[in-house]
Amino acid sequence: MDRLLCFLCLAALAATLGGNAGCSRQFYRTKADREVYSVIRQGNNDPRWKIDDYNIKPDATSRLYNPFNPDGEPMPEDDPAAHRKMHRVAGMKGAPDWHNNGDTRYVENPYWRQYLLVNERGEIPLDKDKAVELSILHSPEYQAARENLYLAAMGVAQGRYEFDIRFFGGDSVSYRNAGGSGASWRNTATAGAERTLATGATWVVDLANSITWTLSGTGSWNAGTTFNVGVVQPLLRGAGRKVVLENLTQEERDFLATVRQMILYQQGHYTRIVTGSGRQNIPSGASTAGSTPNTGSFYGLLEQQIQIQNQRQNIIGMEDNLNRFIELFDAGQVSNVYQIRNMEQNLLSSQRDLLRLANSYQSDVETYIRSLGLPPDLKVSITDPLLEQFQLTSPTLTALQEDVSILMAAIRKRDQPLPENFRDELKTIIRRTEGEIAVLEQDLEILQKSMPDRIAGLKSLEAFITDRIADGERVDLDPSVYDTETFLTRVNKLQTEEIPNTLARLQATFTLLNLIVDFDEPTLREMMQNRSFAPSVQEALRLLKLSEIAESTVDPEQSTLATLQQELERLADELRTLRGENGDEAAPRVIHEDAERIIAELRLENTYRDWVRRVCSVYQNELVTLSLMQTRARLDAMTLAPVSVTPEEAFQIASEHRLDWMNRKAQLVDTWRKIDIAADRLRGAMSLTFDGTLGTSDKYGVQFSKNNSDLALGLRWDTPLDRYDEMLAYRRSQIAYQNARRAYYTYVDSVQAQLRNTLRDVQLSQINFEINRNAIFVDTVRVDVMQLQMERPPTRGASIDTNTSEQLVNALNGLMRSQNSFLSTWIAYQTQRMLLDMYMGTMELDERGRWIDPGVIGSEAAVFQRHAPVLIPVPIPVPMIETPRVNRRYVE
Questions:
Q1: What's the pTM?
Q2: Is residue 435 domain-shared with residue 554, that is, in the same domain?
Q3: pLDDT score of 873
Q4: If we measure between CA atoms, which residue out of 320, 312, 321 comes closest to residue 399?
Q5: pLDDT tens for each residue of 699-730
Q6: What is the pLDDT of residue 265?
Q7: DSSP string, 11-49
Q8: Would you say residue 805 has pLDDT above 80?
Q9: Residue where a domain terminates, one of 673, 700, 718
Q10: How does strand 704-718 pair with strand 685-696?
């Protein structure tokens, strides 16, 4: 028996030690996840704030992913000096097991780059949807939002656990040596359960068993078992469901607010990534987002790309016109060298601006990808179909103009021969230009399809302006900006006159360019001399007003070239005579300078080269006109998604759908509820208690006896004699509620002001969009007019106006500024539409976190059906208290 008891004691000791060791870390982690995710799923029963993306474990392709065992993390790289403190501190040896899980030098997922999809240049193609997708996958801030939602759900799980049945148990083994009375072993085991009820009652049930083994003498032993029951029910302070369920109620309401805030954060996250505006705070919690920057936007990067392209287009125009001015100066048609220097200065300034824009763009790209949670050394290519509609001149046409400018620069260098392959290049240029004509025809088809939307937009804008005028406001706006007839007349003229004329002239240049491509120089000279041009060539010369260059080269005897050759021979004879007669060096030097001038003019009057230069120059002019036609067609095809909701309608929609408004209402009620909770503490404490004990009477501790039992029923209370702190807390709760009331209606006012300001910005952007559209039309005409002034071939004795270069530079710069302003206005409008959708509480995201554009935003739009409020029945009818009437006499 002694051995049996010893064995039982040792077994109990082992069981106690094993029980205290508990389950594994993984068991508790997965159990916590199951309970918390269950709470989140239960909170997702309302479609207005349903969340699917709530798992806090990052995807394996994410930079945030942890490839190591979360329950046995290896030690990250440490500072050497600080690390020594872990192994020896204050002269004492530290713990030896710091490195049991191994060491690692990785903090981020070391494999995440392998999952990135790159193009042939090693760049990640990044459109707005891909940017949002990458930010959700890699952003530390977005991950912090998920974790804060998890922590809020954890608080609910913990609050619910307080009202569950909670089991407890334990065991203790002790050895005692009392000197003269001998030694003994004692084992005491307990097990029980407790629970708190919604009424505030708490009951505890436990079973205790004790075995004592006396080692001295005969080695006797005995056992005893006790069954205990205790109940406490508060009757005054701390009693009732209102007070008892307060903490759990607050946890549940806070969690609901966090779920709504998560939806708001997801909406704000999208708008921030795309537009740079509309940022929402992450749901409240202990987790933080780190130091991820919040600068830049996808729209902003697209805008910079367009600005860079517009700047390049501007430089192309300036370079071409500078070369023409130099050519005209050499021909004596530009008498003031200041015009050339002015254009050179403006060209250098534009090139400097292009370098600045490109450098700023690269810096902004790096900052932007950091805001997505990615490192700045990652190579990305910012591109989006959205960009194409703002390329008022197609990139391929811009590239063609650049190549033509390079070729023209070589053709204009009279002191060098024509490039050997220039005819092959002309052949390629013709083919590329035909492709651009096909692009223009596609642009015209798009313009025709967009006509109904353009007309509807203009009529909506006209109605808005008319209403403002009817309200007595002064609107200083040219009616042609929104006049439908003006628009239809402009488009009709573009389609029936201007573009057909441009295409006809381009076909004429193709005829002349093909003549240069198909015939070598001697053959073409012979055709000029014999006037043997085909009728199609003669028609092309007439259409392009180039007949004079063919006629001036028909008779070499009467040409300026023959006259200059005779003059050169005469000067050479004079030079020989003067040197032979008196050796005067001054006169021969003057004659020599005249001879050099004549030789330069001879080079200028190279008939074949002049033919090539003039034809290519006219073609280059028509290419500029083609780009202007393309700009106008694309410009008039662009539309804005209408916004016709009134401020009153937007405010009403927001009052029903804004999730943060719902949270504000709940917060106000939370503050109101605290008054009753604080008032409960002013009451005295009174509790009804019950304690019952039933024990055993036999040696083995298994036979319960009423003779070994005890029952007690009592009433405990204390009087509220000292309630000073509670009194102050109660008064604070009342003042806090008054503050909350004021904060609530101030918030409502701010929402109304926010909506009204946003709608005003939308309306202003609509007007500015049309103004900037018309400004581009005006600037394209200015550039076209200035180009026509330089289209005629140089004639001797004529001179170009001294202000021409400055006017041309101003026209090109004005066109570039108008294009940039037009793009900025469109981006502002799109941003304001997106923000309006979010501010009204009607914004929806798809399963990938992308905005579902509602299209038309108006009083009859589908957005109302799409976001019909979900009515949840209230189980208990709540009577409404009428607003108390004001005692007018008392007020007075």
A1: 0.79
A2: yes
A3: 42
A4: 312
A5: 777 777 778 888 888 888 887 778 889 899 99
A6: 95
A7: HHHHHHHHHHH-S-HHHHHHHHHHHHHHHHHHTT-SGGG
A8: no
A9: 718
A10: antiparallel
d(CA 59, CA 67) in angstroms, rounded, equals 10
Q: Per the domain annotation, does 527 fall within a domain?
A: yes
Quote the DSSP letter at residue 59: P
Rounded distance, CA 769 to CA 763, Å?
10
Q: What are phi and psi of 264, to 5 degrees?
A: -60, -40
Residue 851 contacts residue 835 (beta carbons within 8 Å): no
The reply to whether 590 and 664 lie within a common domain is no
Backbone φ and ψ of 144, nearest 5°? -65, -35
The H-assigned helical ranges of 93-212 are 128-138, 140-161
Task: Answer whether residue 259 is part of any domain.
Answer: no
Beta bridge partners of 689: 232, 714
Amino acid at 642: P
Question: Pairing relation of β-strands 380-382 and 124-126?
Answer: parallel
| Three-state secondary-structure class, residue 374 | coil
Report the phi/psi class of residue 217: left, alpha or beta, with left for phi > 0 and alpha for psi in -120 to 50. left
Dihedral sign for Cα 478, 479, 482, 483, please: negative
Q: Which two tokens stand for residue 609?
A: 């080269």
CA–CA separation, 36 and 586 (whole Å):
104
Which residues lie closer than 8 Å to 47 by C-beta, 6 or more apart? Answer: 870
Burial environment of residue 877 by CB neighbours within 10 A (0 to 12, 13 to 18, 19 or more): exposed
One domain for residues 691 and 763: no
What range does the domain containing 773 cover? 641-682+721-788+839-892
Report helix, strand and coil shares of the chain as percent, to nearest 5.
60, 10, 30
- Residue 544 within any structural domain of the chain: yes
Distance CA 463, CA 858 (A): 15
- Cβ(537)–Cβ(514) under 8 Å? no
Which amino acid appears at position 405 of this protein? S
E strand or H helix at 205: strand 202-214
Is residue 313 within 8 A of residue 817, CB to CB? The reply is no
Query: How distant, in Å, are the alpha carbons of 441, 566, 592, 593 from that of 579?
Result: 68, 20, 12, 15
Distance CA 814, CA 780 (A): 9
Q: How many Cα atoms are found within 13 Å in the side-chain-facing hemisphere of 639?
A: 21
Specify the length of the chain in residues. 892
Q: Are residues 742 and 664 in the same domain?
A: yes
Q: Do 417 and 431 lie in a common domain?
A: yes
Domain boundary, last residue among 673, 693, 718: 718
User: Taken in order 297, 303, 306, 310, is the CA torsion positive or negative?
Assistant: negative
Distance from C-alpha of 63 to C-alpha of 66, rounded to nearest angstrom:
8
Considering the domain architecture, whether residues 783 and 844 belong to the same structural domain is answered as yes
Angstrom distance (rounded) from CA 702 to CA 694:
12
Residue type, 21: A
581 and 446 in a common domain: no
CA Rg value for the chain: 44
Q: Based on the structure, what is the number of domains in the chain?
A: 4
Q: Please check the confidence at residue 867 and state whether its pLDDT lies above 60.
A: no
Nearest to 507 by CA among 443, 441, 437, 440: 437
pLDDT of residue 217: 67
**215: its two tokens:** 């080692």
Give the Cα-Cα-Cα angle 688, 693, 699 (nearest 5 degrees): 175
Comparing C-alpha atoms, which of 826, 868, 879 is closest to residue 299? 826
Residues contacting residue 494 through CB under 8 Å, at least 6 positions apart: 629, 632, 633, 636
Cβ atoms of 230 and 204 closer than 8 Å: yes
* Residue 554 in domain: yes
Q: Is 223 helix (H, G, I), strand (E, B) or coil?
A: strand
Which pLDDT value is given to residue 869? 45
> In terms of Cα–Cα distance, which of 836, 305, 892, 794 is closest to 560?
794
Q: Which residue shows structure tokens 């409960």?
A: 680
Residues 707 and 728 in one domain: no
